[in-house]
Amino acid sequence: MKEILAQVGKYTKESLLAPFFTILEVIMEVILPFVMALLIDDGVDKGDIGKALIYGGIMLVVAAISLVSGMLSGKYAARASTGLASNLRESMFKNIQRFSFSNIDKFSTAGLVTRMTTDITNVQNAYQMIVRIAVRAPIMLTCSIIMCFMISPDMSVIFLIAMLFLIIALGIIMISVMKVFNVAFKKYDALNASVQENISGIRVVKSFVREDYEKEKFTKASGDIYKIFKKAESILVFNSPVMNLAIYSCMLTVCWLGASLVVNGSMELGQLSSMFSYIMSSLMSLMMLSFIFVMLTMSVASIKRISEVLREEPDIKNPLKPETIMRDGSIEFKNVHFSYHKTSEKEVLSDINLKIKSGETIGIIGGTGCGKTSLINLISRLYDVTEGTVYVGGKDVREYDLEFLRNQVSVVLQKNVLFSGTILDNLRWGYENATEEECIAACKAACADEFIEAMPLKYNTFIERGGANVSGGQKQRLCIARALLKNPKILILDDSTSAVDTATDAKIKQAMREIIPGTTKIIIAQRISSVQDADRIIVLDDGEVNGFDTHENLLKNNEIYSDIYESQVKGGGDFDRPQN
User: Fold this and answer.
1) First-to-last CA distance in the chain?
2) For the residues of 17-55, what is the DSSP string, one character each?
3) Could you tell me which residues come within 8 angstroms of residue 247 by beta carbon, excluding any fewer than 6 positions away?
4) Phi, psi of 132 (to 5 degrees)
5) DSSP 400
6) Which residues contact 449 (CB under 8 A, 6 or more apart)?
7) Residue 490: what are its φ and ψ, rounded to 5°?
8) Residue 168 and which of 304, 434, 485, 559 are 20 to 30 A apart at CA?
9) What b/e sequence results for 166-185 when a residue is b if at least 16 CB atoms lie within 10 Å of its CB, and e otherwise?
10) What is the pLDDT of residue 503?
11) What digits encode the pLDDT tens for the residues 70-109?
12) pLDDT tens for each residue of 500-511
């Protein structure tokens, strides 16, 4: 709760004004029945028109103040709650941007989306009720009880019995429904995951004619939410009959006893009338409190889920005195061990020792799951080593400012991502202030200009979200151009030319040698043809370095490398090379 309330921020004024005007509204509403009783007893019953007019005027003024106060209370409550929701979303998003890959691994994408939408909406609604209804209901309840006892202590006992019954009944209903709401939002995650997966993979779904399967999966996720809320509503539906039973039983009893007291002269007619008003107000306040408990029950689960994101501390942080100077692009792995989870029995990387000179072109090859991507993720500190040290430019990567380090290490990831916007917008992710000429030069080096020039709007062509309107090879070349714009000290290509043919791949490599000769280039590939021209090649096997040498020496001395070469070149595994 502390994390949530800390996000109120600049909306503190509205959060205080809303309950202030709510209290003023309640005071006016409590005064109204009292003045009405005076109007009836001292004015109407006694035939005193003057007093009736005076009390009538007072009632009009009090009602007007109550109306204005209610409007202002609602206005400020709406501002405070929507402001809180806005601050929460912003804080969550900012914190997510600080997450390392290991932090992101703890939350599903669908789970984060649910937290920033459904969960925050629940908290927004609950906060609006807290600053208004949660203030109004207990004050109205307390004032009504006091006024009832002032009018008739004996008759107030009936009201207290009805209230006690209502508290017990509503308490049972609330406890029952809380258990249901605690599991509801996990089902929302499943629903969002189903939608997200379907939309992102819609082309695959249609290609394999799996629409019916996806519909069934969505229907099941949607049906689970329906069942949970149906169960919750089937419990909450008892609120109304229980409330009506308490109100009408109390009213009938008060009518019977009150009529006798009025006839006997023990109570004035106006007092009985105001008694009815106070009893109704107090019982309705109790009903409102029950609804607040329902909303709070729903929001407690949401608050926990939001707090998980706000409390999550990035595993990777800047040092106290971060370095912002990098000597060169040299890289050294010294006794490096790495696991994604500290409790994992098997390491992803084991005892890695490598030295890479600045400006070298290094290839990395190995079977699926051998640790290639994990190895390069340590260079830009997307993950931290479990043991050992990674040096870049002669310094431990943990000594560098994170933003500076990642600006010096440009990575074209295995899963290429483009964002909605023009081609130029996407290219300038690499260098924000890049001129159009610099963008064109980078695209020429990445062999992307040939297809861009064929587009009607050329570099102003709009890219759909995720690069949906370009092919896999075009997407890869745009991402390579984007990385080249950074002019980094280290360039990492993580299987990023897998969707282009060998001839284009060779052109890209040649262009990189010419335009960034001093940059250390690391190329991860599945094809021997993509790395055989590298200065040296790392052969990874099950998280360990099996070989590190030139293409020729590895063919002679490394069994794994020679086997891959034989299977690809002689066995026709490299699809765009002629078979022998």
Assistant:
1) 70
2) HHHHHHHHHHHHHHHHHHHHHHIIIIIITTT-HHHHHHH
3) 162, 280, 283
4) -125, -70
5) B
6) 440, 443
7) -135, 130
8) 304
9) beebbeebbeebbebbeebb
10) 75
11) 899 889 988 888 888 888 888 888 888 888 777 777 777 7
12) 667 777 777 778
